């Protein structure tokens, strides 16, 4: 049972990293949103599996939140907004896809090296692998935020980063307040999405490219 | 005893708060200064009692400050020595200020800070953990900064205060690092824990270096001295007296406490930078004092010189101790501490003289003064005692401490390291040069201010200063004479402190005939200030009697220096610049002195002009480039204010990756 549980948990966390990489090479916003929804589904599965093997029923709530909110509502809302507001559907990147992918691999290597070293004293191999994967997802999410110009893709990058946090919180056995944390992050994401779209930055700035937002700040000399 | 000392500190701090409320009381300054003086006298009594009874260290833990640490206070022999020093200086300055404060045009700008400053200095001496020490050190710096700013409408004062603040921050940061290193990873911030801690010589050397910068910037070691000649004179004179006479000694206390009491191990080569910095500081300080023409700046530069002498003595003591020669180390450390005590006495006295002259004439540039011995005879007499003492002439106290220091220097052949055998006599040579230059400097100081004819109307119309000021100056002058004539008492008094940190002391001096000092052995050297005084008195009296007896008693009046200029202007007298010129020319490269003479062409009736510029090389070569660099970096980094959100995120991301990579490699 142990080997079996470990393999499936490993597979699901690994898939999460894989989906993070898939998000990096999407060059259309719709495709990116779909990939993100897929990542949320994988996260929900991974958390549910953790709930099952740890015998922690409250994690099912986290999984449900991930599935309903992040895999359905947010992508659907973003889809609608992108369509209705006529946002440019191309993802504007700062550097090419290949260097970004290479950097991503470096980050995964870094997080695995670091986490396996730091948690050498921990007994559970499962938690160690899980933490390494979670850190990779977080770093990949940040990488995405840094290498994309478009506000929508930055929001998606942030949500992907947050998926990594949830994975880490779910993987660490006995971590308190996992459900509350996931709820809080969901609310935060909702606020950011609302901040970006409800306030119609597109109307004010004619773009949701965050590079152009800088030019309208009063403090530039 | 400690309870009494702590009560005094609390009273002083409370007095600061009370002074804020005394805005409308006419006698406010008399009350505040009087109470401060009484409390300081109490501190002297506490210190003397601890030293005289050779009592064990008394400590106390007050539950304020950091919750797991509290404030540890302790009074041991070393602290008691500095309590006596601080109390004497504080009491004299307070007594002086009762009179001097009346002439201040804005006394309320000083009153709330003055007692607190005294209290904070006392607390630095009493502190027995790093947190209390640093906190009181900072309070001391801040309150003295506020008093430097008293005449804040003058641009020079503001820039001096700013410079002081920057240097004080630098110093405290170094102290913070030094104490952090001493506390080690375990974080034992009590001094008792630091004494026990084990550390490698490398760490100890680093701590000593940090202490030299931290305490040295407050005391005025070259090249950290730049704030001192501008900030000390900017304050009112009684505050200058405290800052120069007492606060620099609190910095010396910090260094002694760490280097001799807390730090272990000290290897011989660690004493080298202390000796070099001390001797270099002594010479540079007194050189600048010789060419400056402002009375209070001269005194501030001379403070730098004396701090150099003290640090040289401390370095010598470190060298002897590292070689296991504890008695010789005791000799050098005694010389250092006695010199600290003496410098407090005569430097406070001289700053008070400068203040009295400033009050009487409104001027402190030497070339505006002159002939004050006729207008202010009592001040002049007391000033004469002060300059004789600071010029290290027997039988006054300055000679005693310098003589002890040279006795220690002469023992340097006993040192085993060739490096030190070579270095110490060289440093001794520099110290001798500094002592000679100090004598020249104070001949000039006294001569130009008090002798000759008045150079301005202000000097001509001066009046004697008030009784309070005279009483304070007379008290200090008396102590100068006493410490010079019976130095053995002082040496025996501070012996417990030397014993505490070195485990050895100088031979007891009390039983020697004629108050003679015998630092090592009678066959080697001995000095009796008392006999010298008797000799000076007898020979001087006999000479005076002979002159009066054998010369014509009739007073003759004739034109002075009537060599074709019957109406010579007072400005043609030998002045400050004239005294400075030979030394300035000889030492020109060290003080970057440049003279320019502009001669009018033949036939032109215009005057020729001669101008002299000196500059502090530390300032132009070290501080100005450094500040330009900081300015440049600030301008460049300004671009960081105007990045896009994505770039800020990228910065955060990059630093995170950097830290994670560092962590990975570290592991």
UniProtKB/TrEMBL annotation, chain A:
The protein, known as: Hydrogenase-4 component E
Main subcellular location of this protein, as a coarse class: membrane
Coiled-coil stretches noted in the UniProt entry, renumbered to this chain: none
TM annotation in the entry: 6-25, 32-53, 59-78, 98-119, 131-148, 155-175, 181-199
Keyword field: Cell membrane, Membrane, Transmembrane, Transmembrane helix
The keyword Transport is annotated on this UniProt entry: no
Species this chain originates from: Rhodovulum euryhalinum
Compartment list: Cell membrane
TrEMBL record, chain B:
GO biological process: ATP synthesis coupled electron transport
Pfam families: Proton_antipo_M
Domain NADH:quinone oxidoreductase/Mrp antiporter transmembrane: 127-412
Segments crossing the lipid bilayer: 28-52, 73-98, 118-149, 161-183, 203-227, 239-260, 266-291, 298-320, 340-360, 381-400, 420-447, 468-491, 527-548, 648-666
GO molecular function: lyase activity; NADH dehydrogenase (ubiquinone) activity; oxidoreductase activity
Membrane topology, from the record: Multi-pass membrane protein
InterPro entries cross-referenced by the UniProt entry: ComplexI-like_HydComp, NADH_UbQ_OxRdtase, ND/Mrp_TM
Keywords, in A-Z order: Cell membrane, Lyase, Membrane, Oxidoreductase, Transmembrane, Transmembrane helix
Location in the cell: Cell membrane; Membrane
A single Gene Ontology CC term: plasma membrane
PANTHER family membership: FORMATE HYDROGENLYASE SUBUNIT 3-RELATED, HYDROGENASE-4 COMPONENT F
Cited function: NDH-1 shuttles electrons from NADH, via FMN and iron-sulfur (Fe-S) centers, to quinones in the respiratory chain. The immediate electron acceptor for the enzyme in this species is believed to be ubiquinone. Couples the redox reaction to proton translocation (for every two electrons transferred, four hydrogen ions are translocated across the cytoplasmic membrane), and thus conserves the redox energy in a proton gradient.
The protein's name in its UniProt record: Formate hydrogenlyase subunit 3/multisubunit Na+/H+ antiporter MnhD subunit
């Amino acid at each position: 049972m142990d080997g079996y549980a470990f393999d499936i948990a490993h597979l699901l966390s690994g898939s999460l990293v894989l989906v993070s990489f898939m998000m990096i090479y999407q060059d259309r916003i719709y495709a990116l949103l779909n990939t993100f929804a897929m990542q949320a589904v994988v996260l929900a599965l991974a958390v549910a599996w953790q709930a099952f093997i740890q015998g922690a029923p409250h994690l099912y709530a986290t999984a449900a939140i991930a599935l309903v909110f992040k895999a359905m509502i947010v992508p659907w809302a973003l889809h609608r907004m992108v369509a209705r507001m006529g946002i440019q559907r191309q993802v504007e990147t700062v550097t090419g896809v290949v260097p970004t992918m290479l950097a991503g691999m470096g980050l995964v290597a870094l997080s695995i090296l670091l986490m396996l070293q730091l948690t050498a004293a921990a007994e559970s191999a499962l938690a160690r692998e899980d933490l390494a994967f979670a850190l990779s997802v977080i770093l990949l999410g940040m990488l995405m935020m840094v290498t994309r110009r478009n506000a929508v893709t930055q929001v998606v990058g942030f949500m992907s980063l947050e998926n990594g946090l949830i994975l880490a919180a779910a993987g660490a056995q006995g971590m308190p307040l996992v459900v509350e944390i996931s709820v809080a992050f969901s609310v935060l994401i909702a606020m950011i999405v609302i901040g970006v779209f409800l306030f119609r930055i597109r109307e004010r700035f004619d773009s949701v490219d965050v590079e152009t937002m800088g030019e309208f700040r009063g403090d530039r000399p | 005893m400690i309870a009494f000392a702590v009560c005094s500190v609390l009273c002083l701090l409370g007095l600061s708060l009370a002074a804020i409320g005394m805005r409308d009381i006419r006698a406010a300054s008399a009350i505040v200064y009087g109470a401060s003086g009484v409390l300081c006298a109490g501190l002297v009594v506490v210190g003397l009692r601890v030293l005289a009874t050779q009592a064990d260290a008394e400590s106390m833990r007050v539950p304020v400050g950091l919750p797991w640490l509290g404030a540890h206070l302790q009074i041991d022999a070393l602290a008691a020595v500095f309590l006596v020093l601080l109390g004497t200086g504080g009491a004299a300055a307070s007594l002086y200020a009762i009179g001097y404060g009346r002439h201040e045009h804005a006394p309320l700008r000083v009153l709330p800070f003055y007692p607190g400053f005294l209290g904070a200095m006392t607390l630095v001496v009493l502190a027995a953990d790093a947190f209390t020490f640093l906190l009181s050190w900072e309070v001391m710096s801040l309150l003295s900064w506020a008093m430097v700013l008293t005449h804040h409408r003058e641009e020079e004062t503001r820039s001096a205060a700013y410079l002081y603040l920057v240097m004080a921050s630098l110093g405290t940061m170094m102290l913070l690092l030094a104490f952090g290193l001493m506390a080690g990873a375990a974080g034992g911030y009590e001094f008792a824990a630091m004494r026990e801690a084990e550390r490698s010589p490398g760490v100890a050397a680093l701590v000593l270096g940090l202490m030299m910068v931290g305490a040295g910037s407050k005391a005025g070691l070259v090249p950290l001295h730049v704030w001192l000649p501008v900030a000390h004179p900017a304050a009112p004179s009684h505050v200058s007296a405290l800052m120069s006479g007492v606060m620099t000694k609190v910095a010396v206390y910090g260094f002694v406490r760490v280097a001799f009491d807390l730090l272990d191990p000290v290897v011989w080569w660690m004493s080298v930078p202390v000796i070099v910095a001390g001797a270099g500081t002594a010479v540079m300080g007194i050189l600048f004092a010789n060419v400056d023409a402002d009375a209070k700046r001269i005194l501030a530069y001379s403070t730098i010189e004396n701090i150099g002498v003290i640090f040289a003595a401390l370095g010598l003591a470190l060298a002897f101790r590292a070689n296991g020669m504890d008695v010789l180390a005791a000799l050098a450390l005694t010389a250092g501490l006695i010199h600290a005590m003496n410098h407090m006495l005569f430097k406070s006295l001289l700053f008070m003289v400068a203040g009295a002259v400033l009050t009487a004439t409104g001027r402190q540039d030497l070339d505006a003064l002159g002939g004050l011995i006729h207008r202010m005879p009592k001040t002049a007499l007391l000033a004469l005692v002060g300059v004789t003492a600071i010029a290290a002439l027997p039988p006054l106290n300055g000679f005693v401490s310098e003589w002890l220091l040279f006795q220690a220097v002469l023992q340097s052949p006993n040192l085993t390291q060739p490096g030190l055998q070579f270095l110490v006599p060289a440093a001794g040579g520099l110290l001798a040069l500094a002592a000679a230059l100090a004598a020249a400097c104070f001949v000039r100081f006294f001569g130009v201010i008090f002798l000759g004819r008045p150079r301005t109307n202000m000097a001509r119309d001066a009046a004697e200063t008030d009784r309070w000021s005279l009483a304070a100056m007379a008290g200090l002058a008396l102590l100068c004479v006493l410490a010079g004539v019976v130095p053995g008492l002082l040496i025996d008094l501070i012996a417990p402190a030397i014993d505490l940190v070195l485990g050895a002391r100088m031979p007891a001096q009390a039983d020697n005939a004629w108050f003679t000092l015998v630092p090592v052995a009678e066959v080697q050297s001995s000095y009796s200030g008392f006999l010298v005084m008797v000799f000076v008195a007898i020979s001087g009296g006999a000479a005076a009697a002979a002159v009066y007896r054998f010369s014509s008693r009739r007073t003759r009046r004739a034109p002075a220096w009537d060599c074709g200029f019957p109406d010579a202007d007072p400005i043609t007298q030998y002045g400050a610049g004239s005294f400075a010129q030979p030394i300035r020319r000889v030492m020109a490269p060290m003080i970057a002195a440049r003279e320019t003479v502009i001669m009018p062409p033949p036939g032109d009736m215009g005057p020729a002009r001669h101008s002299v510029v000196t500059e502090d090389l530390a300032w132009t070569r070290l501080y100005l480039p450094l500040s330009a660099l900081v300015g440049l970096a600030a301008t460049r980094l300004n671009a960081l204010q105007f990045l896009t959100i994505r770039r800020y995120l990228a910065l955060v991301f990059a630093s995170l990756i950097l830290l994670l990579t560092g962590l990975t490699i570290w592991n």
